[in-house]
From TrEMBL:
GO terms for molecular function: chromate transmembrane transporter activity. It comes from Sedimentisphaera cyanobacteriorum. The chain crosses the membrane at residues 12-31, 51-72, 79-104, 116-135, 147-176. The keyword S-adenosyl-L-methionine does not apply. GO terms for cellular component: plasma membrane. Its main location: membrane. This is Putative chromate transport protein. Keywords: Cell membrane, Membrane, Transmembrane, Transmembrane helix. The gene is srpC_2. The keyword Cell membrane applies. It is found in: Cell membrane. Pfam families: Chromate_transp (PF02417). It is a multi-pass membrane protein. Belongs to the chromate ion transporter (CHR) (TC 2.A.51) family.
Length: 184
């Protein structure tokens, strides 16, 4: 392994460890920081590619942040990049959760700990809403996209349709629409 390969692996590890360490709430709450780190700061992928990674990461099994780390890591340095990015994004959480698990049982009944968790839940909800609004602005490009998003949100929220079925239906719709465009 040459110095350039070691350098990119180190950058992947550190960048994703920073995301894993400094985002509270995991999953969707990590997406704004992932985007700033991977698109804005490092320029490893474009915003459009990041949206695609979010979509694929959500549609595949596993945690979205780990899936996105795997995609970006692979793009930058192949299988080793996937491993280093994955360790980076998960490592801080494993350490922190292990420490909390070791000490929380003695503190979880304290009122200040309960209030702190209530505050963290609010902060996580805000980060998820922020991510939703930003993704929506970039992903919904026309009236039809807005209509599909509104229908999907309503149908999934009211449990009329499974999120998996909705994703499959929208993919099918997009493919049929694209094929019709190609035939024009």
């Amino acid at each position: 392994m040459n110095a350039l390969e070691k350098n990119i692996l180190g950058k992947l590890l550190i960048s994703f460890a920073r995301v894993g360490l400094f985002t509270v709430g995991g999953g969707y709450a990590m997406l704004p920081m992932l985007s700033r780190e991977v698109v804005g700061k490092r320029g490893w992928v474009s915003e459009e590619e990041m949206l695609d990674y979010y979509a694929i990461g959500q549609a595949t099994p596993g945690v979205i942040a780990i899936n996105v780390a795997a995609f970006v890591g692979y793009r930058q340095a192949g299988v080793l990049g996937t491993i280093f990015a994955g360790i980076g994004v998960v490592g801080p959480s494993v350490i922190i959760i292990s420490l909390i698990a070791a000490f929380l049982s003695g503190f979880q009944d304290y009122i200040y700990v309960q209030k702190a968790f209530a505050g963290v839940r609010i902060a996580v909800a805000v980060m998820i809403i922020y991510t939703l609004v930003n993704m929506g602005r970039r992903a919904i490009k026309d009236y039809t996209g807005g209509l599909l998003a509104a229908i999907g949100f309503t149908a999934v929220t009211l449990q009329i349709i499974s999120p998996v079925l909705f994703v499959a239906a929208v993919i099918f719709y997009a493919l049929v629409r694209e094929r019709q465009k190609g035939g024009e």
